[in-house]
Amino acid sequence: MREEASIRYRIRPADPNAHLFELELELDDPDPAGQRFALPAWIPGSYMIREFARHVMSIEARSGARRVALEKVDKHSWQAARCRGPLALRYRVYAWDLSVRGAHLDASHGFFNATSVFLRVLGREHDPCAVEILPPEDDAHADWRVATTLERAGARPWGFGGYRAADYDELIDHPVEMGRFALVEFEAAGVPHAVAITGQHDTDGERLARDLARICDAQVRLFEPRARKAPFGRYLFLTTVVGDGYGGLEHRSSTALLAARNDLPHRGMKGVPDGYRRFLGLASHEYFHAWLVKRIKPRAFTPYDLERENYTRLLWVFEGFTSYYDDLMLARSRVIGTDDYLKALAATVTSVAKAPGRRVQSVAESSFDAWTKYYRQDENSPNAIVSYYAKGALVALCLDLTIRERTGGRRSLDDAMRLLWRRHGRPGAPAPEGLAEDGFPALLEEATGVALADEIARWAHGTDELPLAELLARFGVALETKAGATRESMLGIRLASRQGEPSVASAYAGGPAQRAGVSAGDTIVALDGLRADDKSIKALLERRNAGDTVRLHVFRRDELLAFDVELGPMSADEASLRIDEKAPARVKRLRDGWIR
Ligand code: ZN
Fold it and tell me: At CA 53, angle to CA 52 and CA 54, rounded to 5?
C-alpha cells in the first residue's frame, strides 16, 4: 500500500462459495466529530437507483484494538462514533450479481465495481486512495490474475497487490476482474488495448484483435483527426461470456461487457454473422463512451451525485449519438460492409416503429425519466416510452444527413462531436463543467454552420415521426416498410410464453385486443374454440384476415374470460434499407462521405 494515501482499501475474495468479499477500510484521520461512510445509490452509466448497500453484511469499526460504535443512519450510510483515528472498518459484501453493474464471486472468478464494495468516506471524496487486491487464500486459485485499468502501484501487470486512484470518482470508474481470464492484446492509436475474456469460450483472438483495432483506431481518428491521440494510456474490454446475455457499461479506460458465447468469433468464421456484429457494436458503443459521457458530460453529471437520481434531458445525445456511431464506426472502419450496416440501421428503425410509445414520449422526456421508466420497464412500457438509445440514434442520423445535405458534404455530425470534445472533454478543455441542458442546438450550429434548433425541438423534444425516408432517399438509400412475420400484430399484442402457455406480454394501446378487453398478463387458452399454443395461434391467424372476428379465451388470474377480437391489419413496421445503385454521382458522393 502506498504510504501517502490516507484512505486505504483492502479487498479479499474471502468465501467464493458463499459469494462473499471481505473488505477493510483504514483511515488515519477520520472526522473527529464522527466519520460518515456510504455506498453509492447507483453506478454512473446505469441510470437506476440500485441501493448497493443492501448487500453489505456484518460491518464493524475499530480504532486499534478498541471497538468504535457504528450506526446505520439511512439505507446507504453509516455513522461512526467520535474517534481521533486511526479508524478501520471491516465488512463483508455479498456478490452474486452477474451483471456489468454489480459484483460477482464464485470459485471460478471474481468481478466487482467499486460502487458495490468500497465505502465512500464522506467529505474525503477528493483524497487519493490506495487499494490492495488480495488473492483467494487456498492453493486451488493460485493461477488467478487481476484485470483492471486501475493504476498499478507495483510492477507486475495482471497481478494481485497494490493499486491506487487519485480520488473516489476515479476509484469507482475502474471495474476489476480476477480469475483465469484469457487475454487478447492489440495496439490501437499507439496505445495498448486488451480483451480479458472470462467464462468458457473458443474465441478466435487474432480475428477479434484485428477487428477491434480497426474500430478503435477509427474512433480515435474521429475525435482527434490530426493528433490521433487516445485520451487514455491503455484500454481494457473486460468481457464475461455466458450462454445468453448482453450488456455493457462504460468507463474512462475500460468497459465491462456481458456477451453470448456464440457471438464471439471462432476460427474459420466467414464474414460477420449477426451475433458477432452485435458484439462488435457493443464494444464499439462502450469505447465511444470513453469520449462521449465519460469525458464530455452533461452538466448535470459534473460532478455525479451518488446519493440520488441525476436528471438530464440529454441522454438522447449521450446514449443516442453513441448508439448511432457504434454501428457506423464498424462500417467506416470497414469491419462490416455497407449492406450489413444498412441491415443494422434498419433493425433500429424497426424497433422504434414497433413501439407506440414513440407517439406519447419524446426522447428528451425519456432521458429525464430514465430512472423510473426506461430502466424499470413493465407491460405498459411499449405504450408509454420511447428508447433514447434507438430513437436517439435515429435523431442523430437525421441531424447528420441534414447537415451533410445542406453543406454539400463539407460538414457533418462528426464536426459537432469534435467541437464537443474540444470544448468539454479534452484535457484542458475550456468548459469541463459539461454541456448545458439547452446547449446542444447552439453548439451544433457553431460546429456546422447549420441551424437545426427547430428540427431538434420537433425530433428530440416532440413526438413527430422522423423524416427518415425522405432524408435517406437524398443519399441514395431507399427505406421500405412491410408487414413483419409476427402474425400476432393482427391482435395488437406482444406474445410471451409462460410455463409453455402463450400469454399477453403487452397489449398495444388502441389495438384490437386492448379494445376488446384483453389485458397484459392474460394467459391465452383458446382461439376460436381450439387450444392455443405458440404454434396454433400463428397457424390460425395465417388463415384469418383483417376484419375477421376471433374468439379468445383467456385466464385472468384463475378466472376464465372470453373476448371477441376484430383483427386489425398486420402492422407494416418491418423496415429494410436498400442502396439505390442508379443514384447520380453527386448523391453517391454524399453517401460515401457518410458511410465510408
Ligand atoms: Zn451507452
Answer: 90
d(CA 445, CA 403): 10
Distance CA 539, CA 528 (A): 12
Is residue 2 scored above 50 in pLDDT? no
Find the mean pLDDT for residues 236-249.
Answer: 97
Indicate the CATH number for domain 291-478+580-596: 1.10.390.10
Domain ranges of the chain: 7-178, 181-272, 291-478+580-596, 487-566
Nearest Cα to Cα of residue 225 among 450, 422, 401? 422
Cα gap 246→282, rounded to integer Å: 9
| H helix runs in 462-546, sequence order | 468-473, 512-516, 534-542
* DSSP letter, residue 417: H
Residue 155: pLDDT band with limits 50, 70, 90: low
Among positive and negative, which fits the CA dihedral 428, 434, 440, 442? negative
Ligand 1 center from residue 584 Cα (angstroms): 36
Helical residues (DSSP H) of 160-252, grouped into ranges = 168-171, 205-223
Q: Which three cell numbers stand for residue 458?
A: 420537433
For ligand 1, the distance from its centroid to the CA atom of residue 66, given in whole angstroms, is: 47
43 C-alpha to center of ligand 1: Å? 13
- Give distance in angstroms: CA of 250 to centre of ligand 1: 7
| CATH level 3 topology of 181-272 | Zincin-like (3.30.2010)
> Which cell goes with 110?
471474481
Question: 571 with 382: CB under 8 angstroms?
Answer: no
Residue 157: pLDDT over 90: no
User: What nine digits make up the cell of 9?
Assistant: 482499501
How many angstroms does the Cα of residue 45 sit away from the middle of ligand 1?
Answer: 7
C-alpha cell at 329: 464506426
Residue 368 β-bridge partners: none
So what's the architecture of 487-566 in CATH? Answer: Roll (2.30)
Q: Which grid coordinates belong to 537?
A: 395461434
Query: In angstroms, rounded to a whole number, what is the distance separating the alpha carbons of residues 266 and 486?
Result: 32
Looking at residue 215, its amino acid is I
| Predicted pLDDT of residue 572 | 85
What is the reported pLDDT for 485?
A: 77
Residue 3: predicted pLDDT: 52
Domains 181-272 and 487-566 share a fold: no
Distance 317 CA to ligand 1 centre (A): 10
- How far apart, in Å, do the first and last CA atoms of the chain sit? 49
Closest CA to 595 of 324, 347, 390: 324
- Ligand 1 mean position to 247 CA, how many Å? 10
Query: Considering the domain 7-178, what is its CATH architecture?
Result: Sandwich (2.60)
Q: What is the dihedral of CA 206, 210, 212, 218, to 10 degrees?
A: 170
Query: 54-87 pLDDT, tens per residue?
Result: 999 999 999 999 999 999 999 999 999 999 989 9
Cβ within 8 Å of residue 62, ≥6 positions away: 68, 87, 88, 90
